[in-house]
Structure formats: structure tokens, C-alpha cells
Amino acid sequence: MPSDLYAVADFCLIPMGTGESSVAEYIAECQRVLEKSGLTFKIFHFGYGTNLEGPWSEVSQAIHDCHTAVHRKGAPRVATDIRIGTRVDRDTPVGDGNDHKVKRVEEILARERAAASGIFVA
After folding, report:
1. Phi first, then psi: what are they for 97, rounded to 5°?
2. Do you know which Gene3D superfamilies this protein is assigned to (predicted)?
3. Taking the alpha carbons of 26, 75, 36, 86 in that order, is the dihedral positive or negative?
């Protein structure tokens, strides 16, 4: 088993106590941190969720660094919900953890739609 597991994390970072109605500047600060990390990531739902992939230690460090950056930007409190998945039953190409899953679901749905319409899809 690898010493540093490959992790796929979904996290939602919420700046609190900023006195502002928008948190976009704080989320942008976190995105800058993620871009510098070199990890694969996607921001979903207008900044209310981020998918992050890579070695467990680097993923954890990137989330920590987001907290630090958002505090430095002026948020007195930051709350984060994190869900992390790992697997050791097969190799996961770097950056392919969630893309592969999404592609498989899309393929299944496309076959079902095609079958319903009478079109054959291999």
C-alpha cells in the first residue's frame, strides 16, 4: 500500500464574520492557493464546493493553506466541511479520480437514452 494515499476530496470553505454579503473575494483567494498547489481541482456551485485530488498530505495541506489565506484576507472565522475518499484496489491516474466517475455515469445515461430512442450505442 502506498505511504501517501491518493485522495479525492470535496470541501466547502465558508468564510464567516466578514461583515460582507458576498464571500467571492475569499473564495477567489482560496482558488489562488489551489492553483499554486499544482493539484487537480474544480470549483462547483459558485464557490460553495470544491473537488480536489492528489496525495492525501498535499490535499490536506492545500485545505489548510486555504484557511490560512482566507484568515489573512480578513475573515475572523472559517468553517469547512470535508469529505475525502481513497481507494487502494486499483491505480488512479493523477487528476482522473472524479473525471473517470463522471464519464462512466454519462456513458451509462447516454446508452439508456439511446436505447429509449431506438438508437444503438456501443
Report:
1. -55, -55
2. 3.30.70.930
3. negative
Q: Nearest Cα to 69, choosing from 35, 34, 16, 29?
A: 29
* Alpha helix ranges (H) inside the chain: 24-37, 56-72, 97-117
Q: Per-residue pLDDT for 67 more than 90?
A: yes
**pLDDT tens readout for residues 25-64:** 999 999 999 999 999 998 886 556 899 999 999 999 999 9
Amino acid identity of residue 78, one-letter, is V
* 24-37 helix and 56-72 helix, angle to the nearest 10 degrees: 140
Q: What's the pTM?
A: 0.79
- φ, ψ dihedrals at 64, nearest 5°: -60, -45
87-91, long-range: CB < 8 A, 24+ apart: 87/6, 88/1, 88/2, 88/5
Torsion angle, alpha carbons of 20, 32, 67, 97, to 10: 120
Please name the residue that has the C-alpha cell 480578513.
74
Rounded distance, CA 71 to CA 81, Å? 17
